[in-house]
Design brief:
heterodimer, A: 549 residues, alpha+beta, Flavocytochrome C3, Chain A, domain 1, Methane Monooxygenase Hydroxylase, Chain G, domain 1, 7-stranded mixed beta sheet, 4-stranded antiparallel beta sheet, 17 strands, B: 76 residues, little secondary structure, Alpha-Beta Plaits, two-stranded antiparallel ribbon, 2 helices, 2 strands
Protein backbone atom coordinates (compact mmCIF):
# COMPACT_ATOMS: atom_id res chain seq x y z
CA UNK A 1 0.00 0.00 0.00
CA UNK A 2 1.21 3.46 -0.80
CA UNK A 3 1.12 6.26 1.78
CA UNK A 4 0.03 9.84 1.22
CA UNK A 5 0.30 12.63 3.78
CA UNK A 6 -2.31 15.40 3.82
CA UNK A 7 -1.97 18.46 6.02
CA UNK A 8 -4.62 20.88 7.26
CA UNK A 9 -5.26 23.15 10.22
CA UNK A 10 -8.59 21.46 10.84
CA UNK A 11 -9.57 17.94 9.83
CA UNK A 12 -13.29 17.08 9.82
CA UNK A 13 -13.99 13.37 9.90
CA UNK A 14 -17.34 12.83 8.20
CA UNK A 15 -19.17 14.96 5.65
CA UNK A 16 -22.67 14.94 7.11
CA UNK A 17 -24.51 17.96 8.48
CA UNK A 18 -22.18 18.42 11.47
CA UNK A 19 -18.97 17.85 9.49
CA UNK A 20 -19.93 20.30 6.76
CA UNK A 21 -21.12 22.94 9.20
CA UNK A 22 -17.87 22.57 11.14
CA UNK A 23 -15.88 22.89 7.92
CA UNK A 24 -17.79 25.97 6.79
CA UNK A 25 -17.26 27.74 10.11
CA UNK A 26 -13.59 26.73 10.40
CA UNK A 27 -13.02 27.75 6.78
CA UNK A 28 -14.50 31.20 7.21
CA UNK A 29 -12.45 31.64 10.38
CA UNK A 30 -9.32 31.41 8.24
CA UNK A 31 -8.27 27.79 8.83
CA UNK A 32 -7.27 25.39 6.07
CA UNK A 33 -9.86 22.61 6.26
CA UNK A 34 -10.11 19.07 4.91
CA UNK A 35 -13.32 17.05 5.19
CA UNK A 36 -12.80 13.30 4.91
CA UNK A 37 -15.86 11.31 3.92
CA UNK A 38 -16.15 7.51 3.67
CA UNK A 39 -18.80 7.66 0.96
CA UNK A 40 -19.71 10.71 -1.09
CA UNK A 41 -20.53 13.85 0.91
CA UNK A 42 -23.50 14.65 -1.33
CA UNK A 43 -25.22 11.48 -0.13
CA UNK A 44 -23.79 10.77 3.30
CA UNK A 45 -25.05 11.05 6.85
CA UNK A 46 -28.60 11.15 8.16
CA UNK A 47 -29.34 14.25 6.11
CA UNK A 48 -28.36 12.64 2.81
CA UNK A 49 -31.74 12.59 1.20
CA UNK A 50 -33.36 15.32 3.22
CA UNK A 51 -34.99 16.32 6.48
CA UNK A 52 -38.03 18.40 7.32
CA UNK A 53 -37.83 19.21 11.05
CA UNK A 54 -35.43 21.65 12.68
CA UNK A 55 -35.96 22.44 16.35
CA UNK A 56 -35.39 26.06 17.15
CA UNK A 57 -36.19 28.56 19.86
CA UNK A 58 -37.31 31.83 18.30
CA UNK A 59 -37.69 34.59 20.91
CA UNK A 60 -40.34 36.50 18.93
CA UNK A 61 -42.42 33.32 18.66
CA UNK A 62 -41.69 31.58 21.96
CA UNK A 63 -41.20 34.58 24.26
CA UNK A 64 -38.17 35.32 26.43
CA UNK A 65 -38.14 32.06 28.42
CA UNK A 66 -35.58 29.76 26.80
CA UNK A 67 -35.65 27.38 29.78
CA UNK A 68 -39.41 26.99 29.45
CA UNK A 69 -38.91 26.09 25.82
CA UNK A 70 -36.33 23.44 26.78
CA UNK A 71 -38.65 22.03 29.46
CA UNK A 72 -41.38 21.63 26.88
CA UNK A 73 -39.04 19.94 24.45
CA UNK A 74 -37.85 17.45 27.04
CA UNK A 75 -41.43 16.23 27.42
CA UNK A 76 -41.22 14.76 23.92
CA UNK A 77 -38.98 11.88 22.78
CA UNK A 78 -36.14 14.34 23.28
CA UNK A 79 -36.34 13.59 26.98
CA UNK A 80 -34.60 10.27 26.32
CA UNK A 81 -31.41 12.14 25.51
CA UNK A 82 -29.19 12.09 28.57
CA UNK A 83 -27.20 15.30 28.50
CA UNK A 84 -26.56 18.24 30.79
CA UNK A 85 -28.95 21.18 30.61
CA UNK A 86 -26.14 23.50 29.47
CA UNK A 87 -25.88 21.55 26.21
CA UNK A 88 -29.52 22.34 25.37
CA UNK A 89 -29.11 25.95 26.50
CA UNK A 90 -26.14 26.39 24.17
CA UNK A 91 -28.02 24.75 21.30
CA UNK A 92 -31.11 26.90 21.58
CA UNK A 93 -29.21 30.12 22.13
CA UNK A 94 -27.66 29.58 18.70
CA UNK A 95 -29.93 27.32 16.61
CA UNK A 96 -32.12 30.15 15.30
CA UNK A 97 -29.00 31.89 14.00
CA UNK A 98 -28.25 28.74 12.01
CA UNK A 99 -31.84 28.66 10.71
CA UNK A 100 -31.39 32.18 9.32
CA UNK A 101 -28.03 31.29 7.77
CA UNK A 102 -29.41 28.20 6.07
CA UNK A 103 -32.31 30.20 4.69
CA UNK A 104 -29.86 32.76 3.34
CA UNK A 105 -27.73 30.02 1.75
CA UNK A 106 -30.68 28.55 -0.10
CA UNK A 107 -32.13 25.85 2.15
CA UNK A 108 -35.78 26.99 2.37
CA UNK A 109 -36.50 27.30 6.09
CA UNK A 110 -39.83 29.11 5.67
CA UNK A 111 -43.11 27.84 4.31
CA UNK A 112 -45.40 30.22 2.45
CA UNK A 113 -43.36 33.15 3.72
CA UNK A 114 -43.34 32.36 7.43
CA UNK A 115 -42.03 29.99 10.08
CA UNK A 116 -44.11 26.84 9.94
CA UNK A 117 -44.25 24.77 13.10
CA UNK A 118 -45.55 21.20 13.00
CA UNK A 119 -44.81 17.77 14.42
CA UNK A 120 -42.96 16.54 17.52
CA UNK A 121 -45.22 18.63 19.76
CA UNK A 122 -48.34 17.97 21.84
CA UNK A 123 -51.69 19.54 20.99
CA UNK A 124 -52.18 22.76 22.96
CA UNK A 125 -48.50 23.02 23.92
CA UNK A 126 -45.46 24.94 22.67
CA UNK A 127 -44.51 24.11 19.09
CA UNK A 128 -40.78 23.41 18.93
CA UNK A 129 -39.95 22.24 15.40
CA UNK A 130 -39.79 24.35 12.25
CA UNK A 131 -40.71 22.62 9.02
CA UNK A 132 -38.06 23.14 6.36
CA UNK A 133 -37.37 21.90 2.86
CA UNK A 134 -34.19 19.91 3.32
CA UNK A 135 -34.14 17.63 0.32
CA UNK A 136 -31.18 19.41 -1.26
CA UNK A 137 -29.51 20.60 1.96
CA UNK A 138 -26.31 18.63 1.41
CA UNK A 139 -25.79 20.18 -2.00
CA UNK A 140 -26.13 23.65 -0.48
CA UNK A 141 -23.76 22.93 2.42
CA UNK A 142 -21.13 21.42 0.11
CA UNK A 143 -21.23 24.56 -2.02
CA UNK A 144 -20.87 26.78 1.05
CA UNK A 145 -17.89 24.72 2.24
CA UNK A 146 -16.17 24.82 -1.14
CA UNK A 147 -16.76 28.58 -1.40
CA UNK A 148 -14.67 28.89 1.77
CA UNK A 149 -11.81 26.86 0.37
CA UNK A 150 -12.68 23.61 2.14
CA UNK A 151 -11.30 20.48 0.47
CA UNK A 152 -13.64 17.48 0.52
CA UNK A 153 -12.02 14.07 0.14
CA UNK A 154 -14.60 11.40 -0.64
CA UNK A 155 -13.97 7.63 -0.40
CA UNK A 156 -11.58 7.72 2.53
CA UNK A 157 -12.34 5.91 5.77
CA UNK A 158 -10.57 7.34 8.79
CA UNK A 159 -9.59 4.41 10.99
CA UNK A 160 -7.66 5.83 13.94
CA UNK A 161 -6.59 9.04 15.58
CA UNK A 162 -2.93 9.97 15.98
CA UNK A 163 -1.76 11.34 19.31
CA UNK A 164 1.18 12.94 20.95
CA UNK A 165 0.72 12.81 24.69
CA UNK A 166 -2.85 13.94 25.43
CA UNK A 167 -3.11 15.83 22.20
CA UNK A 168 -4.62 14.67 18.92
CA UNK A 169 -2.27 15.50 16.05
CA UNK A 170 -3.97 13.85 13.11
CA UNK A 171 -5.55 10.68 11.88
CA UNK A 172 -4.93 7.75 9.61
CA UNK A 173 -7.24 6.27 7.05
CA UNK A 174 -7.60 4.04 4.02
CA UNK A 175 -8.93 4.76 0.57
CA UNK A 176 -12.04 2.70 -0.15
CA UNK A 177 -11.26 2.22 -3.83
CA UNK A 178 -7.48 2.34 -4.07
CA UNK A 179 -4.74 0.45 -2.25
CA UNK A 180 -3.70 3.54 -0.35
CA UNK A 181 -3.14 4.64 3.25
CA UNK A 182 -3.74 8.32 4.02
CA UNK A 183 -2.05 10.10 6.89
CA UNK A 184 -3.60 13.34 8.07
CA UNK A 185 -1.59 15.89 9.94
CA UNK A 186 -3.85 18.44 11.65
CA UNK A 187 -3.78 20.99 14.45
CA UNK A 188 -7.35 20.11 15.39
CA UNK A 189 -9.61 17.19 14.52
CA UNK A 190 -13.41 17.20 14.57
CA UNK A 191 -15.22 13.87 14.76
CA UNK A 192 -18.48 14.29 12.92
CA UNK A 193 -19.07 10.65 12.16
CA UNK A 194 -22.37 8.82 12.22
CA UNK A 195 -24.39 6.52 14.41
CA UNK A 196 -23.82 2.86 15.04
CA UNK A 197 -25.96 0.84 12.63
CA UNK A 198 -25.60 -2.90 12.03
CA UNK A 199 -24.76 -3.76 15.63
CA UNK A 200 -28.23 -5.28 16.08
CA UNK A 201 -30.23 -7.04 13.35
CA UNK A 202 -32.53 -4.92 11.21
CA UNK A 203 -36.30 -5.37 11.05
CA UNK A 204 -35.59 -7.63 8.07
CA UNK A 205 -32.76 -9.79 9.44
CA UNK A 206 -31.92 -11.24 6.02
CA UNK A 207 -31.64 -7.73 4.62
CA UNK A 208 -29.07 -6.04 6.83
CA UNK A 209 -28.91 -2.69 5.05
CA UNK A 210 -32.61 -1.95 5.47
CA UNK A 211 -31.61 0.74 7.94
CA UNK A 212 -32.64 4.40 7.93
CA UNK A 213 -29.15 5.51 8.96
CA UNK A 214 -27.55 3.68 6.08
CA UNK A 215 -24.94 0.96 6.25
CA UNK A 216 -21.91 3.23 6.36
CA UNK A 217 -22.72 4.47 9.83
CA UNK A 218 -20.82 1.84 11.76
CA UNK A 219 -19.73 3.65 14.91
CA UNK A 220 -16.29 4.39 13.46
CA UNK A 221 -16.02 7.68 15.33
CA UNK A 222 -16.78 6.32 18.75
CA UNK A 223 -14.59 3.26 18.18
CA UNK A 224 -11.56 5.31 17.15
CA UNK A 225 -12.25 7.84 19.88
CA UNK A 226 -12.38 5.09 22.49
CA UNK A 227 -9.13 3.55 21.26
CA UNK A 228 -7.50 6.99 21.54
CA UNK A 229 -8.62 7.43 25.18
CA UNK A 230 -11.74 9.55 24.66
CA UNK A 231 -14.65 9.15 27.06
CA UNK A 232 -17.82 7.45 25.82
CA UNK A 233 -21.09 7.62 27.69
CA UNK A 234 -24.12 5.33 28.17
CA UNK A 235 -23.08 2.91 25.43
CA UNK A 236 -25.40 0.29 26.94
CA UNK A 237 -28.57 2.40 26.73
CA UNK A 238 -30.58 1.14 23.75
CA UNK A 239 -32.84 3.12 21.49
CA UNK A 240 -35.85 2.09 19.44
CA UNK A 241 -37.88 3.81 16.78
CA UNK A 242 -41.21 3.21 15.13
CA UNK A 243 -42.25 3.54 11.51
CA UNK A 244 -43.63 1.85 8.41
CA UNK A 245 -43.37 -1.91 8.44
CA UNK A 246 -40.67 -3.59 6.50
CA UNK A 247 -39.74 -0.47 4.48
CA UNK A 248 -37.73 0.97 7.34
CA UNK A 249 -37.68 4.77 7.36
CA UNK A 250 -37.50 7.48 9.97
CA UNK A 251 -39.79 10.47 9.84
CA UNK A 252 -42.77 9.23 11.83
CA UNK A 253 -43.57 12.85 12.76
CA UNK A 254 -44.18 13.72 9.10
CA UNK A 255 -47.18 11.37 8.87
CA UNK A 256 -50.60 12.97 9.23
CA UNK A 257 -52.84 10.24 10.53
CA UNK A 258 -54.17 8.48 13.59
CA UNK A 259 -52.57 5.34 15.00
CA UNK A 260 -55.32 2.74 15.18
CA UNK A 261 -55.89 -0.92 15.98
CA UNK A 262 -57.58 -3.32 13.50
CA UNK A 263 -61.05 -2.35 14.82
CA UNK A 264 -60.35 1.30 14.02
CA UNK A 265 -59.90 2.37 17.65
CA UNK A 266 -57.21 5.01 18.19
CA UNK A 267 -54.30 3.64 20.21
CA UNK A 268 -53.72 6.95 21.98
CA UNK A 269 -55.89 9.89 22.95
CA UNK A 270 -53.91 12.74 21.41
CA UNK A 271 -55.85 12.96 18.14
CA UNK A 272 -59.10 11.51 16.81
CA UNK A 273 -58.62 12.59 13.21
CA UNK A 274 -55.56 13.45 11.09
CA UNK A 275 -54.00 16.69 12.31
CA UNK A 276 -51.29 18.40 10.26
CA UNK A 277 -49.99 20.34 13.26
CA UNK A 278 -49.25 17.44 15.55
CA UNK A 279 -49.49 14.10 13.78
CA UNK A 280 -50.17 11.42 16.40
CA UNK A 281 -47.92 11.95 19.41
CA UNK A 282 -48.66 8.46 20.76
CA UNK A 283 -45.73 7.32 18.61
CA UNK A 284 -43.44 9.72 20.41
CA UNK A 285 -44.74 8.86 23.84
CA UNK A 286 -44.40 5.12 23.34
CA UNK A 287 -42.31 3.80 20.48
CA UNK A 288 -42.88 0.26 21.72
CA UNK A 289 -46.63 0.49 21.18
CA UNK A 290 -46.69 -1.54 17.96
CA UNK A 291 -44.68 -4.32 19.56
CA UNK A 292 -46.88 -4.26 22.66
CA UNK A 293 -50.08 -4.48 20.59
CA UNK A 294 -48.61 -7.36 18.63
CA UNK A 295 -47.49 -9.24 21.76
CA UNK A 296 -50.90 -8.74 23.41
CA UNK A 297 -52.71 -10.12 20.38
CA UNK A 298 -54.20 -6.66 19.68
CA UNK A 299 -52.23 -5.90 16.53
CA UNK A 300 -51.42 -5.07 13.88
CA UNK A 301 -51.22 -1.35 14.48
CA UNK A 302 -51.86 1.04 11.61
CA UNK A 303 -50.99 4.58 10.70
CA UNK A 304 -54.43 5.48 9.41
CA UNK A 305 -54.47 8.55 7.19
CA UNK A 306 -57.73 7.67 5.44
CA UNK A 307 -59.59 10.66 6.91
CA UNK A 308 -56.99 13.15 5.69
CA UNK A 309 -58.24 16.19 3.75
CA UNK A 310 -56.99 16.66 0.20
CA UNK A 311 -55.13 19.77 1.33
CA UNK A 312 -53.40 17.97 4.18
CA UNK A 313 -52.57 15.06 1.88
CA UNK A 314 -50.68 17.42 -0.44
CA UNK A 315 -49.01 18.98 2.61
CA UNK A 316 -47.89 15.59 3.93
CA UNK A 317 -46.56 14.43 0.55
CA UNK A 318 -44.60 17.67 0.22
CA UNK A 319 -42.90 17.16 3.58
CA UNK A 320 -42.37 13.42 3.16
CA UNK A 321 -40.37 14.23 0.06
CA UNK A 322 -38.20 16.69 1.96
CA UNK A 323 -37.84 14.31 4.90
CA UNK A 324 -35.93 11.98 2.59
CA UNK A 325 -38.76 9.52 2.07
CA UNK A 326 -38.93 9.81 -1.69
CA UNK A 327 -38.11 6.14 -2.28
CA UNK A 328 -40.96 5.16 0.04
CA UNK A 329 -43.36 7.44 -1.86
CA UNK A 330 -42.20 5.92 -5.17
CA UNK A 331 -42.67 2.41 -3.76
CA UNK A 332 -46.22 3.22 -2.66
CA UNK A 333 -47.03 4.64 -6.08
CA UNK A 334 -45.63 1.58 -7.86
CA UNK A 335 -47.53 -0.80 -5.58
CA UNK A 336 -50.81 1.11 -5.84
CA UNK A 337 -50.73 1.93 -2.12
CA UNK A 338 -52.54 5.17 -1.38
CA UNK A 339 -52.60 6.47 2.19
CA UNK A 340 -56.00 8.08 1.49
CA UNK A 341 -57.43 4.57 1.13
CA UNK A 342 -54.96 2.23 2.82
CA UNK A 343 -53.90 2.24 6.46
CA UNK A 344 -50.16 1.51 6.63
CA UNK A 345 -48.88 -0.96 9.18
CA UNK A 346 -46.37 0.51 11.61
CA UNK A 347 -43.80 -1.51 13.49
CA UNK A 348 -41.55 -0.88 16.44
CA UNK A 349 -38.06 -1.12 15.01
CA UNK A 350 -35.40 -3.33 16.60
CA UNK A 351 -32.86 -2.15 19.16
CA UNK A 352 -30.19 0.30 18.11
CA UNK A 353 -27.04 1.16 19.97
CA UNK A 354 -27.27 4.36 21.98
CA UNK A 355 -24.33 6.04 23.62
CA UNK A 356 -22.18 8.96 22.64
CA UNK A 357 -18.75 10.55 22.62
CA UNK A 358 -18.63 12.89 25.61
CA UNK A 359 -18.28 16.50 24.48
CA UNK A 360 -18.98 19.73 26.35
CA UNK A 361 -20.91 22.81 25.20
CA UNK A 362 -17.83 23.89 23.23
CA UNK A 363 -17.81 20.50 21.44
CA UNK A 364 -14.50 19.68 23.16
CA UNK A 365 -13.70 16.11 24.18
CA UNK A 366 -11.31 15.15 26.97
CA UNK A 367 -8.39 15.10 24.51
CA UNK A 368 -6.76 18.36 23.54
CA UNK A 369 -7.34 19.21 19.87
CA UNK A 370 -10.25 16.78 19.48
CA UNK A 371 -13.85 17.93 19.03
CA UNK A 372 -17.02 15.97 18.46
CA UNK A 373 -20.36 17.02 16.98
CA UNK A 374 -23.45 15.55 15.39
CA UNK A 375 -24.80 12.05 15.83
CA UNK A 376 -21.75 10.70 17.62
CA UNK A 377 -22.31 13.18 20.42
CA UNK A 378 -25.75 14.70 20.04
CA UNK A 379 -27.72 14.23 16.88
CA UNK A 380 -30.83 15.59 15.19
CA UNK A 381 -30.46 18.20 12.52
CA UNK A 382 -30.60 21.26 14.72
CA UNK A 383 -28.04 19.88 17.19
CA UNK A 384 -25.75 18.57 14.44
CA UNK A 385 -25.80 21.89 12.61
CA UNK A 386 -25.36 23.99 15.76
CA UNK A 387 -22.65 21.95 17.45
CA UNK A 388 -20.92 21.36 14.10
CA UNK A 389 -20.73 25.15 13.79
CA UNK A 390 -19.45 25.50 17.36
CA UNK A 391 -16.86 22.74 16.84
CA UNK A 392 -15.59 24.41 13.67
CA UNK A 393 -15.35 27.78 15.39
CA UNK A 394 -13.42 26.45 18.39
CA UNK A 395 -11.20 24.12 16.35
CA UNK A 396 -10.20 27.00 14.07
CA UNK A 397 -9.41 29.19 17.08
CA UNK A 398 -7.34 26.48 18.73
CA UNK A 399 -5.46 25.78 15.50
CA UNK A 400 -4.23 29.37 15.43
CA UNK A 401 -2.46 28.86 18.73
CA UNK A 402 -1.05 25.44 17.92
CA UNK A 403 1.98 24.27 16.01
CA UNK A 404 1.55 21.16 13.94
CA UNK A 405 3.31 18.08 15.26
CA UNK A 406 5.34 15.46 13.49
CA UNK A 407 3.01 12.49 12.95
CA UNK A 408 6.05 10.23 12.67
CA UNK A 409 5.87 9.98 16.48
CA UNK A 410 3.01 7.59 15.75
CA UNK A 411 4.98 5.54 13.19
CA UNK A 412 4.48 2.31 15.18
CA UNK A 413 0.68 2.72 15.08
CA UNK A 414 0.75 3.58 11.37
CA UNK A 415 2.83 0.50 10.55
CA UNK A 416 0.64 -1.69 12.72
CA UNK A 417 -2.41 -0.64 10.75
CA UNK A 418 -0.55 -1.21 7.50
CA UNK A 419 0.34 -4.74 8.62
CA UNK A 420 -3.22 -5.57 9.72
CA UNK A 421 -4.55 -4.38 6.39
CA UNK A 422 -2.00 -6.46 4.53
CA UNK A 423 -3.06 -9.55 6.46
CA UNK A 424 -6.74 -8.95 5.72
CA UNK A 425 -5.93 -8.62 2.05
CA UNK A 426 -3.52 -11.60 1.89
CA UNK A 427 -5.73 -14.29 3.45
CA UNK A 428 -7.71 -16.35 0.99
CA UNK A 429 -9.79 -18.43 3.41
CA UNK A 430 -11.84 -17.28 6.38
CA UNK A 431 -14.97 -15.35 7.33
CA UNK A 432 -15.70 -12.21 5.35
CA UNK A 433 -17.13 -9.05 6.92
CA UNK A 434 -20.78 -9.99 6.38
CA UNK A 435 -20.46 -13.39 8.01
CA UNK A 436 -18.78 -11.72 10.97
CA UNK A 437 -21.41 -8.99 11.10
CA UNK A 438 -24.20 -11.59 11.18
CA UNK A 439 -22.49 -13.41 14.06
CA UNK A 440 -22.16 -10.12 15.93
CA UNK A 441 -25.82 -9.14 15.41
CA UNK A 442 -26.92 -12.55 16.64
CA UNK A 443 -25.03 -12.30 19.92
CA UNK A 444 -26.09 -8.68 20.51
CA UNK A 445 -29.73 -9.45 19.95
CA UNK A 446 -29.80 -12.64 22.01
CA UNK A 447 -27.65 -11.59 24.95
CA UNK A 448 -27.85 -7.77 25.14
CA UNK A 449 -31.38 -7.37 23.78
CA UNK A 450 -34.61 -6.33 25.46
CA UNK A 451 -33.97 -8.66 28.40
CA UNK A 452 -30.62 -8.63 30.12
CA UNK A 453 -29.32 -10.22 33.28
CA UNK A 454 -25.89 -10.94 34.63
CA UNK A 455 -25.70 -14.54 33.39
CA UNK A 456 -26.96 -13.62 29.90
CA UNK A 457 -24.61 -10.67 29.62
CA UNK A 458 -21.61 -12.68 30.77
CA UNK A 459 -22.41 -15.49 28.37
CA UNK A 460 -22.85 -13.02 25.52
CA UNK A 461 -19.63 -11.23 26.35
CA UNK A 462 -17.68 -14.49 26.32
CA UNK A 463 -19.19 -15.51 23.03
CA UNK A 464 -18.56 -12.12 21.49
CA UNK A 465 -14.91 -12.28 22.58
CA UNK A 466 -14.60 -15.62 20.74
CA UNK A 467 -16.06 -14.11 17.57
CA UNK A 468 -13.77 -11.12 17.92
CA UNK A 469 -10.69 -13.27 18.42
CA UNK A 470 -11.52 -15.36 15.35
CA UNK A 471 -12.17 -12.23 13.32
CA UNK A 472 -8.82 -10.84 14.41
CA UNK A 473 -6.96 -13.84 13.01
CA UNK A 474 -9.15 -14.96 10.14
CA UNK A 475 -11.12 -12.10 8.57
CA UNK A 476 -10.62 -11.76 4.82
CA UNK A 477 -10.97 -8.82 2.42
CA UNK A 478 -10.92 -9.75 -1.25
CA UNK A 479 -10.74 -6.16 -2.47
CA UNK A 480 -10.63 -2.61 -1.09
CA UNK A 481 -14.42 -2.51 -0.77
CA UNK A 482 -14.43 -5.55 1.48
CA UNK A 483 -11.47 -4.06 3.32
CA UNK A 484 -13.36 -1.01 4.59
CA UNK A 485 -16.38 -3.17 5.40
CA UNK A 486 -14.00 -5.34 7.48
CA UNK A 487 -12.67 -2.26 9.26
CA UNK A 488 -16.27 -1.24 10.00
CA UNK A 489 -17.05 -4.62 11.50
CA UNK A 490 -13.88 -4.46 13.60
CA UNK A 491 -15.25 -1.17 15.00
CA UNK A 492 -18.66 -2.70 15.60
CA UNK A 493 -17.09 -5.61 17.49
CA UNK A 494 -15.27 -3.10 19.68
CA UNK A 495 -18.48 -1.21 20.47
CA UNK A 496 -20.37 -4.48 21.03
CA UNK A 497 -17.88 -5.61 23.65
CA UNK A 498 -18.02 -2.24 25.40
CA UNK A 499 -21.81 -2.40 25.41
CA UNK A 500 -21.72 -5.74 27.23
CA UNK A 501 -19.24 -4.42 29.80
CA UNK A 502 -21.32 -1.34 30.49
CA UNK A 503 -24.61 -3.24 30.58
CA UNK A 504 -23.11 -5.54 33.20
CA UNK A 505 -22.01 -2.53 35.21
CA UNK A 506 -25.42 -0.80 35.10
CA UNK A 507 -27.10 -2.77 37.87
CA UNK A 508 -30.54 -1.26 37.50
CA UNK A 509 -33.45 -1.04 35.07
CA UNK A 510 -33.71 2.27 33.23
CA UNK A 511 -35.43 3.07 29.95
CA UNK A 512 -34.91 0.19 27.56
CA UNK A 513 -32.04 -1.24 29.60
CA UNK A 514 -34.11 -3.89 31.35
CA UNK A 515 -32.50 -6.04 33.99
CA UNK A 516 -34.97 -8.42 35.69
CA UNK A 517 -32.16 -9.15 38.18
CA UNK A 518 -32.19 -5.43 39.11
CA UNK A 519 -35.81 -4.48 38.32
CA UNK A 520 -35.82 -1.03 39.97
CA UNK A 521 -34.49 2.26 38.64
CA UNK A 522 -31.79 3.44 41.02
CA UNK A 523 -32.19 7.19 41.59
CA UNK A 524 -28.51 7.34 42.58
CA UNK A 525 -27.60 6.32 39.04
CA UNK A 526 -29.26 9.24 37.29
CA UNK A 527 -25.83 10.14 36.00
CA UNK A 528 -23.54 9.72 33.03
CA UNK A 529 -22.08 6.23 32.79
CA UNK A 530 -18.66 6.86 31.31
CA UNK A 531 -16.03 4.50 29.93
CA UNK A 532 -12.54 5.25 28.74
CA UNK A 533 -9.42 3.32 28.02
CA UNK A 534 -6.56 3.67 30.48
CA UNK A 535 -3.37 1.70 29.80
CA UNK A 536 -5.24 -0.72 27.58
CA UNK A 537 -8.01 -1.42 30.11
CA UNK A 538 -11.55 0.04 30.03
CA UNK A 539 -12.35 2.08 33.13
CA UNK A 540 -16.06 2.59 33.84
CA UNK A 541 -17.30 5.26 36.20
CA UNK A 542 -20.36 7.34 37.13
CA UNK A 543 -20.21 11.06 36.71
CA UNK A 544 -22.58 14.05 36.58
CA UNK A 545 -23.75 14.98 33.10
CA UNK A 546 -21.58 17.45 31.19
CA UNK A 547 -22.10 20.82 32.71
CA UNK A 548 -23.66 19.25 35.78
CA UNK A 549 -27.26 18.67 36.70
CA UNK B 1 -30.89 -6.55 -7.20
CA UNK B 2 -31.96 -3.09 -6.01
CA UNK B 3 -30.81 -0.54 -8.64
CA UNK B 4 -31.71 -1.73 -12.11
CA UNK B 5 -29.98 0.08 -14.97
CA UNK B 6 -31.52 0.16 -18.44
CA UNK B 7 -28.47 -0.25 -20.74
CA UNK B 8 -30.38 1.31 -23.65
CA UNK B 9 -30.91 4.54 -21.72
CA UNK B 10 -27.62 4.65 -19.77
CA UNK B 11 -25.08 7.08 -21.24
CA UNK B 12 -22.29 5.51 -19.14
CA UNK B 13 -21.48 8.80 -17.39
CA UNK B 14 -20.68 7.11 -14.06
CA UNK B 15 -22.71 9.57 -11.97
CA UNK B 16 -24.36 6.76 -9.99
CA UNK B 17 -20.98 5.12 -9.35
CA UNK B 18 -19.69 8.44 -8.12
CA UNK B 19 -22.44 9.32 -5.66
CA UNK B 20 -23.36 6.02 -3.97
CA UNK B 21 -22.04 6.20 -0.41
CA UNK B 22 -22.41 2.46 0.12
CA UNK B 23 -20.46 1.95 -3.11
CA UNK B 24 -22.75 -0.78 -4.45
CA UNK B 25 -21.34 -0.10 -7.94
CA UNK B 26 -17.78 -0.80 -6.73
CA UNK B 27 -15.47 -2.05 -9.48
CA UNK B 28 -17.52 -0.62 -12.36
CA UNK B 29 -15.44 0.16 -15.42
CA UNK B 30 -15.28 3.73 -16.64
CA UNK B 31 -17.19 4.25 -19.87
CA UNK B 32 -19.26 1.07 -19.37
CA UNK B 33 -22.75 0.49 -18.01
CA UNK B 34 -22.14 0.31 -14.21
CA UNK B 35 -22.25 -3.05 -12.47
CA UNK B 36 -24.40 -3.52 -9.36
CA UNK B 37 -21.64 -5.40 -7.55
CA UNK B 38 -23.04 -5.32 -4.00
CA UNK B 39 -26.86 -5.22 -4.26
CA UNK B 40 -27.27 -6.37 -0.64
CA UNK B 41 -25.63 -3.13 0.50
CA UNK B 42 -28.17 -0.85 -1.19
CA UNK B 43 -30.04 1.31 1.34
CA UNK B 44 -32.93 2.18 -0.99
CA UNK B 45 -33.14 5.91 -0.74
CA UNK B 46 -33.05 6.48 -4.51
CA UNK B 47 -30.03 8.80 -4.70
CA UNK B 48 -28.88 7.11 -7.91
CA UNK B 49 -32.39 7.12 -9.37
CA UNK B 50 -32.71 10.90 -9.08
CA UNK B 51 -29.09 11.73 -9.91
CA UNK B 52 -29.11 9.76 -13.16
CA UNK B 53 -29.24 12.31 -16.01
CA UNK B 54 -30.67 9.67 -18.37
CA UNK B 55 -33.44 8.41 -16.07
CA UNK B 56 -31.96 4.97 -16.70
CA UNK B 57 -32.19 3.66 -13.12
CA UNK B 58 -35.14 2.19 -11.30
CA UNK B 59 -35.08 0.77 -7.81
CA UNK B 60 -36.44 -2.72 -7.38
CA UNK B 61 -37.56 -3.05 -3.78
CA UNK B 62 -36.58 -6.48 -2.45
CA UNK B 63 -39.45 -8.72 -1.29
CA UNK B 64 -38.48 -8.62 2.42
CA UNK B 65 -38.89 -4.83 2.36
CA UNK B 66 -42.37 -4.60 0.79
CA UNK B 67 -44.49 -2.10 2.69
CA UNK B 68 -47.34 -3.73 4.62
CA UNK B 69 -50.75 -2.10 4.28
CA UNK B 70 -54.39 -2.92 4.81
CA UNK B 71 -56.34 -3.41 1.58
CA UNK B 72 -59.73 -1.73 1.29
CA UNK B 73 -62.90 -3.75 1.87
CA UNK B 74 -63.19 -4.28 -1.89
CA UNK B 75 -59.69 -5.73 -1.87
CA UNK B 76 -58.09 -2.83 -3.71
Amino acid sequence: MTEEVIEADVLCVGGGIAGLMAAIRAGESGATVVVVEKGNARYSGCGRSGNDHFEAYIPEVHGPDIDGFIEELLKTAKGEILLGRNIFQTQFARAFGIVKLWDEWGIPMKYQGGWEFAGHSFPGRTMTHIKYEGRFQKEVLIKQAKDRGVVILDRVMVVDLLRQGDRVIGALGVHTREEKILLFKAKAVILATGKCSRLYPSLTPGWMFNDPHGGVQSGDGRAMAYRAGVELQNVEMPQRHIGPKYFVKFGQASWIGVVKDPQGEPAGDFVQKPDRRHGDMILEVNKLIAEEYHAAGKGPLYMDCTDISEEDYEYMMHWMEHEGNISLLDHMREEGIDIRRHPIEFSTYPLRAGGLIVANEKAETNLEGLYSAGDESYGDISAAATFGWIAGENAALASQETKSCDIEVERAKIDEMGNSIEQLRMRSQGPDWMETNIALQQVMSDYAGMVRNEALLEQGLNHLKRIREKARGELIARNTHELWRCLEVINLLEIGELLFLMALDRKETRGLHRRPDFPETDPMLDKAHVVHLIDGTPRIEWRSYQGGE
Amino acid sequence: MPPVIDPDLCSRCGQCVDICSEDVFFGSDEGEVPTVTYPLECIHFSGCVYECPDEAITLRIPLPMLLVYRPTSTGQ
